[in-house]
Amino acid sequence: MLLTTTENIPGKSYEIIGIAKGSTIQSKHLGKDIGAGFKNLVGGEITAYVEMMNEARDIATQRMIDNAQQMGADAIVCLRYSTSAVMASAAEVMAYGTAVKLK
User: Is 69 helix (H, G, I), strand (E, B) or coil?
Assistant: First the structure.
């Protein structure tokens, strides 16, 4: 599956199928959350949350790809990510884009 953040794929023509999307909500367990709270006091990168968000993006991306494949797409153009906090220590990551069929 070809993924691109651009509106066009150079040298390719395609038919738009629809919007492909995938999402997940992730959180860290209490021990990691307490450790992150202490890190917040002294500053610096909170690696437990960096790992959590990287994993969440990977899951959301794969779910978007699965959604596009179910529609018969060969590629996704205009790929975007969105995040939001849904509660303390939990975040939603959504991946979305335009599913297309190459001609």
Answer: helix
